[in-house]
Each structure stands twice: as C-alpha cells, then as structure tokens.
Specification:
Number of helices: 21
Order of helices and strands: HHHHHHHHHEEHHHHHHHHHHHH
Shape: globular
Largest sheet: 2 strands, antiparallel
Radius of gyration: 23 Å
Oligomer: single chain
Length: about 425
C-alpha cells in the first residue's frame, strides 16, 4: 500500500522527467567525447593552427574520466570487457614510458602522441560506469554516420579545395579518393543500417545502407571494399531462406563480373599485382621485417612496445619521418603495428576480446556491432584500425553494445532460472 502511494502519477512523472534528463546529459557527454576523439572531423582552420588545440581539448576530456577508470582497476566495478580493456590501458601506459625512457622523447610529447591513436580506449570504462543506454549509443552512431556522409559529399564536390584536413586524398585510382577523420563511423553506420533494415523493414535504413556503401566504394581502398562487401553479403544471406540464397549468389556473381571489369577495379588489381609480384620486394613485407627486428631498441620494447612518436618534436619523431620517406609505415602492418607500438599486452588484450565476442550469440537488431568487429579483424593484416583515431571510438561503442547484450542475456537467464 505504501509503495502504491509513493508511485502515484505525479511521482512517476517526476521519475520519467528525471530519466529523460539523465539520458539527454549522457547523449551530450557521449557526443562531445566522440566529436573530440575524431578532432571534430578535423576542419582545415583547426588543422592549420600553429599549436594542436585538438590535443589539449581531448587531453582535458580524458583526464576528467581517469577516476572512473581507476574504479575498475581497483575492482570496485567490472564488466564483460573490462579485463581486456584494462590490459589495453596498461599497455598504453607502458608504451608511453618506453617512448619517454628508451626513445628519449619528452613525457608530454609521448602523452600527446598517444592521445589520438588510442586514448579513446579510456572512454569504454567511463561509459560502462555511466550505464549509457543502447538507444543513446545508436543515436550517436546515426548522427556521426550521417555527418560523415554529408561532409564527404561536400568535400567530393569541392575537391581539390579542402574544407577538411583529409587523412588521405588523391586521384590516382580512377576516382578522387577522399578519406576524412572518423571514417570508422561510416563502416559502423553501414552495418547498423543493414541490421536495422532487417529488424524494422523501414525504407530509410536501406537508403542509408546504399548511400554509405557508395561512399565505401568511393574510398578506392581494396581491403575496406572487399571486407565490407563480404561481411554485408554474409549478413544478408544469413537472413534469407535457401531459395533466396541461391538467387542472391547468382546475382552476386553477375554483379561481381560487372564491377570486376570496370576501369577503376582493373587499376586496383593491377596495382595490387605489381606490389606483391615478388614478396621480398613488397614494401610492406620489408617494412614488417624492419619494425620487428632492426627497429627494436631492446628486448624490453619487444615486450612493452615502443610508444608513439610525436611529429618532428623529438629524435624518435625524426626517425619515423625518415622511415616514412622510405615508405616504411607502422600503420600498414595491422595488428603487427599494434604490437610495435603497444607491445605484447595489447595483442593479448585483443585475443581475449575476440574470444569473448566469438562466444556470444548475436541478437537481432544488434548484429552490426559484431560485424564491425569482424571488419576490424579482416583488416587486421594491413589496416591500423586498432590504433587509429578513425576507428578506436567506433570499436569502443561496438564493444559496449556487445557488452550490454551479454549482460541482458545473463539477467534473463537468472530470471528464467528462478
């Protein structure tokens, strides 16, 4: 009776208002961290400043959430992915120490060099503590996915005039190739659009899927296109009966033949063939051997990594710039590059993450989080997604969605067992 009196319509209304207000705050917080993590899409007027204001903005934001991370490290709180994320954060701290002590880089420069590639991993434990709702995370993915597409279209139309400081751009592959900060959200949004279409059958999701896939094709990046196309096809086929699957495979063969014979694809195939015709002359292979052997300063860096170099501000940074002139890029080495920068602990952390992912059953409407992580794994040989400002925050959000699914299933199992 007392409970009924307390839960009168006025009280329920106040609880509802407080709940909505709390979710709005969480949405604003998450939007702020995500925007800062990709340098607000890196507009040219910010990129051209004499000092790196983005480092200071995101650095302050990350400092604010350190106490929340500390609560997980002293085991006040724990979650499904908290252990591997804590291992990753530990590897980041050790890598900063390696860059400072062994590479003779100033501590502040070592920290600044680390903020954008991998600093966003700190946000995982923060949003876990805040218990941000799934719908809030999905709104953020929707907002940044649409923003990426709009900014890409504007940049494509205005090319070669640059309103954004592009990660990469050229027109040597048969199309003007433009890659903007935060491209990871394009892929996450693409998989989410497919997933939500099969859940709701709403036309807007199929439109989002087609538009985002068109932008993916326009990147002219072989691994991006191949892995996104393969995973999307697998996902779509899984949703069909056996007769539709057969028809889909036949259609795919015709579509593949059509795309294969376009000038742009032939140019990419020829470029790939030239690159890998002789493995010993393949620049990525030479780069891999160098960074795994000659680059390592001691057995300590083989365990704990070398950390990140900060531009041309140190001898370490100048060394990396000279290697770039020889086309030796750690970022071309995928998970091997993660090992070079963050050491063995980071590889162990990702092995644990993927083992945990493979153990889980996918839930309808949320398959996109799993498929995005599969996308990261497929690109793991040649892409720097696991240590890039473009992909780390989408990885964090995907893991958080998967974690929520796990915790919900655990709760349902307890209820059923009672």
């Amino acid at each position: 009776m007392d409970l009924q009196k307390r839960l009168n319509p006025t009280t329920l209304s106040k609880i509802s208002i407080r709940y909505r207000s709390n979710e709005r705050k969480n949405l604003i917080i998450l939007l702020t961290y995500v925007a800062a993590s990709i340098k607000f899409f890196n507009p040219s007027f910010l990129a051209n400043l004499s000092f790196n204001i983005n480092n200071y903005i995101y650095g302050v934001l990350l400092i604010l959430i350190i106490p929340y991370n500390y609560l997980f490290f002293i085991k006040v709180y724990k979650s499904y992915f908290s252990k591997p994320i804590k291992i990753l954060i530990l590897s980041i701290i050790l890598a900063i120490a390696m860059a400072t002590v062994l590479k003779k880089q100033f501590l502040l420069h070592s920290i600044f060099a680390t903020i954008f590639p991998v600093g966003s991993y700190l946000t995982f434990l923060f949003i876990t503590y805040k218990r941000i709702k799934t719908i809030t995370v999905e709104r953020v993915i929707l907002i940044f996915g649409i923003c990426y597409i709009i900014l890409y279209c504007i940049s494509f139309i205005m090319y070669p005039i640059k309103i954004l400081h592009f990660q990469d751009f050229d027109d040597e592959r048969g199309i003007q190739r433009i890659i903007i900060n935060g491209i990871g959200f394009l892929f996450l949004f693409f998989f989410m659009s497919i997933s939500k279409f099969f859940l709701t059958s709403k036309v807007k999701w199929i439109l989002f899927s087609v538009i985002s896939y068109t932008c993916i094709l326009a990147t002219a990046e072989r691994m991006y296109i191949a892995s996104a196309s393969l995973l999307a096809f697998i996902f779509i086929i899984k949703k069909q009966n056996k007769y539709v699957r057969i028809v889909s495979v036949i259609c795919l063969i015709f579509l593949f033949d059509l795309i294969y014979n376009t000038p742009q694809v032939q140019m990419l195939i020829e470029k790939t063939g030239n690159e890998v015709s002789v493995l010993s002359n393949y620049i990525r292979y030479q780069s891999l051997l160098y960074f795994l052997n000659d680059f390592q300063q001691s057995s300590v860096t083989l365990l704990f990594g070398n950390g990140f170099a900060y531009g041309n501000k140190s001898a370490y940074g100048l060394q990396m710039m000279k290697l770039h002139d020889k086309y030796y890029w750690v970022e071309d080495l995928g998970f091997f590059g993660l090992y070079v920068y963050l050491g063995l602990l980071s590889i162990i952390a990702y092995l644990v993450i993927y083992l945990k992912i493979f153990k889980l059953k996918q839930v309808k409407g949320y398959e996109y989080a799993f498929f995005f992580m599969y996308f990261i794994a497929l690109n793991g040989l040649t892409n720097y997604g696991t240590y890039s400002e473009n992909f780390v925050m989408p990885i964090v959000l995907s893991l958080y969605i998967i974690q929520i699914i796990k915790h919900k299933s655990m709760y349902e199992n307890r209820v059923n067992s009672i």
